[in-house]
Specification:
The protein contains 3 helices and 9 strands, in the order ββββαβββββαα. The protein starts with 5 loop residues before the first strand and ends with a helix. It is α+β, with helices and mostly antiparallel strands. Strands 1, 2, 3, 4, 5, 6 and 9 form a 7-stranded mixed beta sheet that branches.
């Protein structure tokens, strides 16, 4: 029996004039949230924060809604990704060069509306997006 591959990431949101904006990243044709493989000795939340920092250069991420999370259904050979929601009140997104790849891990980033993110993200991440919206819009 193969061991489940685990990843963790963040749905990064930022308040805007007309509602929340969601940060999405593009690698080739695939849109995603910042995420990566959980390293030995790391908690999923530590991984999520580290990966967001490494992939976007955003340092000031706030867990305004606590440590609530949502897991994806298994995909890509059984991988499961756990997502938390974080607010990024400030800072510019930069896509730094990955030492491993010798180039940025992603080709583009966008701060999107909910509808734009829903259209860009693959079906496996739409339920995570929908969940994140309910988390940030709860009174």
């Amino acid at each position: 029996m193969s061991q489940t591959k685990r990843a963790a990431g963040l749905v990064v949101v930022r308040p805007a004039e007309r509602g929340w904006r969601y940060l999405v990243l593009r690698a080739f044709r695939n849109w995603d949230f910042p995420k990566g493989r959980i390293e030995p000795g790391e908690t999923p939340l530590e991984t999520a924060l580290r990966e967001a920092r490494e992939e976007t250069s955003l340092d000031h991420l706030e867990l305004r809604w606590g440590e609530t999370f949502r897991d994806t259904e298994p995909y890509a050979g059984g991988k499961i990704a756990r997502f938390y929601v974080a607010s990024s009140p400030e800072g510019d997104v930069r896509l730094p060069i990955s030492e491993e790849l010798g180039r940025p891990e992603h080709h583009e980033h966008r701060w999107t509306t909910y509808d734009e993110a829903h259209a860009l993200l693959p079906p496996r991440l739409r339920h995570v997006l929908e969940w994140a919206r309910t988390v940030i819009e709860e009174p």
